[in-house]
Amino acid sequence: MKITDRSDLWWKTAVVYCLDVEKYLDWNDDGIGDFEGLAHRLDHLAELGVSCLWLMPFQPSPRRDDGYDITDFQAIDPRVGSLGDFVEFMRTAKDRGMRVIIDFVMNHTSDRHPWFLDARRSRDSRFRDFYVWRDEPPKQQPEVVFPGEETSVWEYDERTDQYYLHSFYRHQPDLNIANPAVRDEIAKTIGFWLELGVSGFRVDAVPFLIEPPAGVDVGDPHEFLRDIRRFLQRRSSDAILLGEVNLDYAGQLDFFGHLDAPAELTLQFDFPAMQRMYLSFVREDATPLAEMLAARPELRIEAQWANFVRNHDELTLDKLNDEEREEVFDAFAPEESQRIYGRGIARRLPPMLGGDPRRIELAYSLLFSLPGTPVLFYGEEIGMGENPDLGGRMPVRSPMQWSTEANGGFSRAPARKLVAKPPTDGYAPEHVNVESQMHDPESLLAKIRLFAHRYRSSPEIGWGRLELLDTGEPSILAHRIVADVGSFIAVHNFASTPVTVRLPLGDVSEEARLSDLLADTVVPIDDKGRADVEVGAYGYRWFRTVDSRDRRLT
């Protein structure tokens, strides 16, 4: 691997940061975050080590689903700014060395979108076939995504005496992607945002997009994704598709495109490993996570796993069996109000771990050291908590906490005008904020900055081949990532007791040693290729194997 390869496939060593513009920083004091405010915080993100921003929806919307119900795919919601504000933000992000990808909700629109308003007026509307209509719902129906909030994926519309499909909420009618006119509109939208400089798209709920319920024919569903990928590459050779595909590895492989098939998604979130990580935390046993990492399938060279601790939705546990899910619920969401949809947790990580800084750091050390691309959710860098008063999936989407000022420095508007309110418990802004951690070398912010910068200088993590090292200690996850440029080794202890482990490194040069990437130490390797490493309670160590031939600076 040449150093120049890293720029060609930039996403393989990127640090991605997801944020909601309207909850990041309010610059015009109306209680709603905006692009001007975001532009003023790009230096914070650059110092953090972020190389790619992922923006949650910012298009015009009735906001019945936090912006995922869109009424115009090619516009800016005036609440967060203008197209000019967006262009200025993009220019500033580029100046700071950051790419930008945006959410593309191509599965559905708002029921207030002009297409749907026209479609429901008459069966003869030219937009009628932009959506999926039936005289009667199919007898075989999938489970609803939001149990307790919806009872069916079909909604009766009395104006035209038919039912329309909605995989999510009834106010989000599904687009008919089998319709060439709809595909043309999707392509136009992709082209529009690429012209404005974005580097790709996070595609929401991909399986629902191309694998509709029984009775709905979209042709070859994967061919649609291949068409999008081909169109994207024609318009921008280095733009990406980051897909939300909450399936097992076999299902996810279909959405990457098999090694002998055309490419589809560029990156996918690793839902199976994320869920097993939480099970390992509960049991203080690395085995669940290690087993899942060992099961990861081989990907094509340009494809990549996106690692994450949690995203903006509920912390889903649907890939665990019933007993495993109950273990995690009992430990991290003991109250029924902290659980949602029978499968997820509406909490952020720090409160789940009781605020234990050792375990919190351990989680983010894993995020940055496992093979793949790390994805942070805004506020994770300072250990923000959730506001349960926001309800549903929203508790984790409270405003960013910048300082101890009113409203956490997010806005100078009266509290009653805020788009959402911050927590009021031990994770309130007076306790958790950026300003108080900026110059504290022991803060979580400082640790995540360190992780991000070490990750960016260790291309093995994004490009290399994973090897799990057997130490004989159930609480220890030890892994090595091998690439042409060298090998990276990380050791994580899930237990509350310190341990010394012997790493079996195999055939290494006589001069080889382990250079500690997080501290100014060196660990020797004996003549049998073994290294003894001390790991504290809930501790972690990062190393690079070096010898006299290594020309990299450590």
Automatic annotation (TrEMBL):
<dbReference type="InterPro" id="IPR045857">
    <property type="entry name" value="O16G_dom_2"/>
</dbReference>
<dbReference type="Pfam" id="PF00128">
    <property type="entry name" value="Alpha-amylase"/>
</dbReference>
<dbReference type="GO" id="GO:0005975">
    <property type="term" value="P:carbohydrate metabolic process"/>
</dbReference>
<dbReference type="InterPro" id="IPR013780">
    <property type="entry name" value="Glyco_hydro_b"/>
</dbReference>
<feature type="domain" description="Glycosyl hydrolase family 13 catalytic">
    <location>
        <begin position="22"/>
        <end position="416"/>
    </location>
</feature>
<dbReference type="Pfam" id="PF22157">
    <property type="entry name" value="SupH-like_C"/>
</dbReference>
<dbReference type="InterPro" id="IPR017853">
    <property type="entry name" value="GH"/>
</dbReference>
<protein>
    <submittedName>
        <fullName>Trehalose synthase</fullName>
    </submittedName>
</protein>
<dbReference type="InterPro" id="IPR006047">
    <property type="entry name" value="GH13_cat_dom"/>
</dbReference>
<dbReference type="InterPro" id="IPR054049">
    <property type="entry name" value="SupH-like_C"/>
</dbReference>
